Amino acid sequence: MHSTTTRPHYSARTEIDALWRLSWPMLIGQLATVGMGVADVAMTGHVSADELAAVSIGTSVWSIILVTVMGTMMSMNTVVAHETGGGQFDRIPHVVRQGLWKGLGVGLIAMVLTNVATLLFDHIGLDPAVAGRAALFVHIISLGMPAFGCYRALYGYTTSINATKPVMVIAILGLLFNIFINWLLVFGNWGMPKLGGIGCAVATATGMWLMLAAMIAWMRIAPAYRITFPFTHWEWPHLPEIASMLRLGAPIGITYFAEASAFGAISLLVARFGVVQVSAHQIALNFSALVFMVPLSFGIGMVTRVGQALGEGDAARARFASWVGVGMSVAFGVLSAAFIALFRWEIARAYTSDPAVQSMCVDLLLFAAFFQLSDATQVATASALRGYRVTRQPMQIQLLAFWGFSLPLGYLLGRAPSWFAWAPAAPMGAAGYWIGLVVGLTIAAVLLTWSLHYLSRERVLQSDR
């Protein structure tokens, strides 16, 4: 324990350097992973507006399940970080093996849910041809879900023992594979069948299995895994261990679901406004997701830094690491807001050659610029709380912010029901839903910041007693 008079001095510069060294390979990896979705949307955008709409709708459903799996598997980051900080290296292989069983189960459930979700396409006013293409896209891409669940288990393990290089290299190779197969199958190059957006689904699903295989191969070779190498023997599922990880990870998955489903539900609701608005909305959302990978990578690094500090019993360093990480994320939020606002026309043109879609997209990108600061703040504070093994409170806050405020407000502004006295004179369409997102993200940022301040202060006071 550290008393108030003997607590060591912590250097912000040292912590920034440590978090950056941990986070930048994950950032490259996250950008490459999201770049697959960017490539899907961008390449189909140059086929036709209908094909772009089908991929956009399919992606909106698939991505919700994907990030929910990602969140549910994040308990691996927290558990392994605490074991690493406490020097309990002999326990890590068992945790990883059970995490892989959990990842397989979560991935299989996700595959089923993703396919069931396509039943919505017949009830949201989509053109039947677009709905059929979107459903086929989802059916094919869902085949990669079990591999993704297992990959995220290994992802949490490797990043929490400070070995982040493989997630970067493997993701870059996955992106290059995705782009190449897209080029072959979307446009029918080199004599391959011209599949349009369905080619993107084939490329992404195949890429997920190859990334899992590459991660296992890397772990067998690299020296960083020798002490905690998990593949020394076969181990059947241990339900109490898996249940413990699910209790920690399920609230994170629901937290991710709350935000992603709000964005996804808005995509489905915007679909009623026609191909132009849904395409513009998806482009703006897609680019926002790409930018979001920077504070998200800082957040994943914060889980490791905070978890390792708490594993060592140093609550003061955990608090310090939390606020340094939040500061880095907020600084990036300011920069990204300025970039999006200044270069919104260039961003729109990079995605589509349709003038109507470009014009609508430019307006929506302004809203994306507005919520960069609050989005960066909420992901950083939520990640720090996960480092403390606190996952239910962020879940409750996210559900309140997105489903209690963002969606209802977006619906009122976007559709302007006549019975609501404060509705705008005319429906705002997609713009109304984006205003709701700005409000929801701001509420989440404020509440999560307060929660982190209170919790981290209490842990320091407890350690001083």
What does this structure look like?
It is globular and about 60 Å long. With 465 residues, it is mainly α. It has helices at 12-44, 49-72, 75-85, 92-117, 128-141, 145-160, 165-187, 197-221, 239-270, 275-311, 315-342, 344-351, 355-370, 372-387, 392-415, 430-464. The protein has one domain (12-464). The relative contact order is 0.13. Helix 10 packs parallel to helix 13. The protein is built from 16 helices and no strands. Helix content is 79%, strand content 0%. Keywords: Antiport, Cell membrane, Ion transport, Membrane, Transmembrane, Transmembrane helix, Transport. GO terms for molecular function: antiporter activity; xenobiotic transmembrane transporter activity.
What's the short story on this structure?
Helices cover 79% and strands 0% of the residues.
SSE blueprint:
Layout: H1 12-44, H2 49-72, H3 75-85, H4 92-117, H5 128-141, H6 145-160, H7 165-187, H8 197-221, H9 239-270, H10 275-311, H11 315-342, H12 344-351, H13 355-370, H14 372-387, H15 392-415, H16 430-464
Helix pairs in contact: 1-2, 1-7, 1-8, 1-10, 1-11, 2-4, 2-5, 2-9, 2-10, 3-4, 3-6, 3-10, 4-6, 4-9, 5-8, 6-8, 7-8, 9-10, 9-15, 10-11, 10-13, 10-14, 11-13, 11-14, 11-16, 12-13, 13-16, 14-16, 15-16
Would you count the extended β strands for me?
0
Structural class: mainly alpha
How far apart are the first and last residues' alpha carbons, in Å? Answer: 9 Å
Sum up the overall morphology in one term.
Answer: globular
- Overall domain count: 1
Largest sheet: none
Mean pLDDT score, rounded? Answer: 87
